[in-house]
TrEMBL record:
One of its GO terms (molecular function) is heme binding. Its cofactor is heme. The lineage of its organism: Eukaryota, Metazoa, Chordata, Craniata, Vertebrata. Keywords: Heme, Iron, Membrane, Metal-binding, Monooxygenase, Oxidoreductase. Heme binds at residue 484. Pfam families: p450. It is found in: Membrane. One of its GO terms (biological process) is C21-steroid hormone biosynthetic process. InterPro entries: CYP11_CYP27_families, Cyt_P450, Cyt_P450_CS, Cyt_P450_E_grp-I, Cyt_P450_sf. This is Cytochrome P450 27C1-like. Belongs to the cytochrome P450 family. GO terms for cellular component: mitochondrial inner membrane. The gene is LOC115417155. It comes from Sphaeramia orbicularis (orbiculate cardinalfish). The keyword Coiled coil does not apply.
Amino acid sequence: MMASMNPFRTTCWKSLQSGRRLFFNARTLHKSAAGEALGITAAEEEDMPDALMRPVEAGTKTTVKSLKDMPGPGTLANLIEFFWRDGFGRIHEIQMNHRKKYGKIFKSYFGPQLVVSVADRELVAQVLRAEGVAPQRANMESWQEYRQMRGRSTGLISAEGEDWLKMRSVLRRLIMRPRDVAVFSGDVNNVLDDLIKRVCSLRAQEADGVTVLNVNDLFFKYAMEGVAAILYETRLGCLENEIPKETQDYINALSLMFSSFKTTMYAGAIPKWLRPVIPKPWEEFCISWDGLFKFSTIHVDKRFAQIKAQLERGEEVKGGMLTHMLVTKEMSVEEIYANVTEMLLAGVDTTSFTLSWAAYLLAQHPHVQQEIYNEVQKTLGSSTVPTAEDVPQLPLIRGLVKETLRLFPVLPGNGRITQDDLVVGGYFIPKGTQLALCHYSTSFDEENFTDASDFRPDRWIRKDSTDHVDNFGSIPFGYGIRSCIGRRIAELEMHLALTRLIQRFHIAVSPLTADVKAKTHGLLCPAAPIHLKFTDREN
Ligand code: HEM
């Protein structure tokens, strides 16, 4: 769309396409060379199942079927399921049902929009194996339209083509490897000191002295404070009793964004010409983005002013990711605003929902909690404050996060728009088709995980250095060059938070908590509040 308006973009895009052909030829390379071609870090590659790196077998003759032959629910049935029976809240369940009924690959129509769902580990691997240099996730027209209207830049989530590639290559160098984010351990631990204080003050307000109501609210504030400490290099005060006004304004903008989620994200369904008749969704969408951008602008500008003052005083400028971006000017200031805005948006609910589920699962499985507590005690004792360097010695903590994300993948499905004609599962899929990669159903597939409904963090532990835990059925952060850029930040926040909570408290389910199921609201989140008891461990 935008590319065709700008001849420079068109030229560059062509060179990207030829780069991509090169990449296809490189697919038969051995693992690390292919990893390099994909832009995958060594740590990611280590997790990578061989299936993803295996060269395409030549010379096998198969009949290719067309999309017409692909099974799937009827258009009307699908519309009723989603719009009448509120299927958007049950996307994960519908994914499982459709997988059972139609098989590994099936098609659905949302009005005129065709979506091909891929619900099988090997086929998902095949799709990702065919990715080019700048994969496209979904149609981001509404995000791009807002940015054009306000003269704003796109960020990693909303950008495409060479704009995306340029920003991705800057950010990738800063935060993609565990060792890049290890330096933030101190900042995260400062936030964790406040989280623990907050747990103590909240439970003191309850009659039993141990219950914390609605832990997601607590983890939301922790995730926001933690990610902002890294992105903006500042503290926001989310875990204080009185939240500062500008932080509260941001939280309100974020809530508005999520409450209007259905009508905005899915309402590429609401065509532009209908906006004068149904103006509210677009208006709310713009108001919430205004709030989110305003917040980022305030914090980026604040840091910029501090850096300027330091330079004027002849002082050395030290800092994290934001400082690096502001000083090196590898991105324009508008691009920095857009990226920190989109990263904060992507980093708060994802992390906080996962922490809520992890705490809930620990509370429901006291034996597992005890095993993890033993590991933490053995490695750190009761008072050593963990850092990123300790995490490799805590395999059950890592397993806890992986297992939580397998059972409750915050993004139950992910998207790709095919950039070339493909044959997947014996079907011809033309270029430009919207694919849905069904991570929720592959996570529960018994072929991928034995006793798949069981909560077993130890299933992720390698028995020895040759043991390979094949996990392609569960890729909660996506895979390859368009995978989650914040993965290592999120992992650091979650590993340290869970270690410190388990080290300090015994966590149990409060009788006030009903059996909490998952619902989809854009992300997979708890359908009811989770109330937990935090009792001090006797050390
Ligand atoms: C539990 C926590 C998180 C989960 C499960 C998660 C998951 C994901 C997934 C599945 C994607 C799409 C990947 C793909 O299309 O292949 C994604 C993209 C993204 N995530 Fe995360 N995420 C988490 C936390 C974070 C954090 C903390 C940040 C920022 C600090 C972040 C920033 C982003 C961005 C900017 C993208 C778009 C990347 C691109 O298009 O290049 N995420 N995330």
